[in-house]
Specification:
The complex is a heterodimer of chains A (122) and B (167). With 122 residues, chain A is mainly alpha-helical. Chain A has one domain. Chain A contains four helices and two strands, in the order αββααα. In chain A, a hairpin with a 4-residue loop joins strand 1 and strand 2. Chain B has 167 residues and is an all-alpha fold. Chain B has one domain. The longest helix of chain B is centred in the middle third of the chain and has 33 residues. The two termini of chain B are 19 Å apart. Classes of the chains: A mainly alpha (122), B mainly alpha (167).
């Protein structure tokens, strides 16, 4: 365990900033990729075929899966933004609120539930 | 992987993978629940010994690495069996018209992914457990991950009850 002592203002190392921004951006980008149909690739499990980007299910080849592609898109986007954030000067990095790490997923929850409206049939 | 099918059936193979996924999820749920209880309601000085005190008296920082490892492993196994689920489990559930069950599972898939993205920061916060300026964020990130874990566990359990991988 790191034994960093108390400081009055929460500050993050560049690695800490990377992890914080990655968590925030990954969640946001994941929801965007889901709702805007932006997978990096599409997987067709029936035939093990992989198409770049979004591809609809092919006739007689079973369903298409986008989840793996959303993970890849959002990981890539979040990694790029996190590296950029980690390179920012200390003064700017220290202004990123740590609470966003848990507030963003909580705020995105109703958005995700809404995005699944199709399934909530009574 | 094909050589395995000389010894076990395809269904048995996928059921074994699913069982490993479920066992990893049980371990993760236990670890995260202990840790969340420790940060949400730490034991009070002079509190009488008992189950509740012992439950929340765990050394929360020591759970962080295990939680990350279990989450990643459960996610990998879940992602592996997900392709089979899409064809052999989801389609029959769609045909039966159990849309809310499918919706609950879709939400599980989304939340577990968002939880995965949070893990590096969660690990960073617990690696710096001595820094009290992170205490509030550390507590809430842990609670959010525990809540996600509980939801994903229950949603997965329900889907398995509706139609799991059969032997």
């Amino acid at each position: 365990m790191n034994t960093t002592t108390d400081t009055s203002i929460p500050t993050l190392s560049p690695w800490g900033t990377f992890t914080l921004v990655f968590g925030i951006c990954f969640a946001i980008l994941y929801v965007v990729c889901d709702m805007a149909a932006l997978p990096l690739f599409t997987y067709h499990p029936g035939t093990d075929r992989i198409d770049l980007g979004y591809a609809p299910a092919r006739r007689d080849e079973g369903p298409a899966m986008y989840w793996y592609g959303w993970l890849a898109s959002s990981s890539l986007g979040a990694a790029i933004l996190s590296v950029l954030a980690a390179l920012l000067p200390d003064k700017i990095r220290s202004k990123i609120p740590l609470a966003l790490a848990w507030v963003v997923p909580v705020v995105l929850l109703p958005v995700l539930i809404y995005s699944l409206m199709f399934y909530w049939r009574w | 992987m094909d050589f395995l099918f000389d010894y076990i059936s395809v269904n048995t193979f996928w059921t074994i993978l699913f069982t490993i996924h479920a066992l990893l999820a049980v371990a993760l749920l236990g670890a995260l629940t202990h840790q969340a209880a420790a940060v949400l309601a730490p034991p009070r000085v002079g509190e009488a010994e008992g189950f509740v005190r012992r439950f929340r008296s765990v050394s929360a920082p020591s759970y962080a690495a295990v939680v990350c490892l279990l989450w990643v492993l459960a996610f990998i196994f879940g992602g592996w069996i997900y392709a089979k689920y899409r064809i052999y489990v989801r389609i029959p559930i769609e045909q039966e018209g159990f849309y809310k069950t499918l919706g609950a599972f879709e939400l599980k898939e989304h939340l577990s992914s968002i939880g995965l993205g949070l893990l590096p920061f969660y690990w960073y916060l617990w690696k710096n457990a001595a820094n009290i300026t992170y205490a509030s964020t550390r507590k809430w990130v842990t609670i959010v991950l525990a809540a996600i874990c509980w939801y994903t566990f229950l949603a997965g359990h329900i889907v398995n009850n509706v139609r799991g991988f059969g032997l």
